Amino acid sequence: MIISPHPGGAARTTDEVLDGVDLSGRTALVTGATSGLGAETARSLAAAGATVVLAARDFDAAVDRARRIRERHPNADLDVIGLDLTDLNSVLAAAGILALRRTGLDLLINNAGVMYPPLIRTGGGFELQFATNHLGHFFLTTQLLPVLAATGVRTGRPARVITLSSDAHRAYAIDLQDPHCWKRPYDKFVAYAQSKAANVLMTVELQRRLAAAPVAAYAVHPGVCVTGLARFMSRDDFAEMRRLSAGAPDRLAHPKSVEQAAATSVWAATAAELDAHRGAYLADCEIGRAADHATDPDAAMALWELSTRLTAPH
Known about the structure:
Blueprint: H1 14-17, E1 27-31, H2 36-47, E2 51-56, H3 59-72, E3 77-82, H4 88-99, E4 107-110, H5 128-155, E5 159-164, H6 188-209, E6 215-221, H7 235-244, H8 250-253, H9 258-261, H10 263-270, E7 281-283, E8 286-288, H11 297-310
Parallel strand pairs: 1-2, 1-4, 2-3, 4-5, 5-6, 6-7
Antiparallel strand pairs: 7-8
Helix pairs in contact: 4-5, 5-6, 6-11
């Protein structure tokens, strides 16, 4: 079932979603904030009064993005932190710095991602898409849960964890036996879809574990949008993407603007009506439904346990 609180949700922009919303006193962390959806998410939240921490692997690019936001919104309250999601030590260091902030953390936007690269392994031997899209965000989220929960208790308003997934998750269920393609052949389309399924599964299990905590989790499908995320894609890759999207050809023929694609993220972060729908999968500023294999509670728990082992100190 799809609940449509706003007509024309797919066409809504970030500024339309946040029209009349005052986020003063709230602190948000946005990963992958140097460009694309992350940059727009950070800008729009800052424009609405939030203190926004821009997290990115390229620290200088994050500083430049903060400067651009402040040029457009002179009163924007911004901070920058270096964060490499493929390096667990970097994630741990960033989480430690964030835990020291007196303002706490109201919103965690797990936005950063990589799509369809050739087989690349991180320093730990992990496949890049799984490591970036899921594992790094999983570790960041679990490290920040005490801060988020404490902020929720202090403010009397649940903190929120928003993790960007994709409808691409519907194509393939995650392979919990070999998520890093150590044994099976690497297929970038399969690996991307599985990493996006992992984003939904993490949200499902996170919300189950947070049942008694003042923290809510949501997974977001932003929609098709042309950003730097497609930098690895060739003409053949776009053809394969069209084939995989055969059931919904309009998505590729009419991509969203960046402002429209980021709208569901800021809606997930701020919409009061979502308090009654914790753990939901969101698309087009509406409450949707993810694929069954991405919401299976047993798979969600198994992925959580696997991710905990993979991110444990060695």
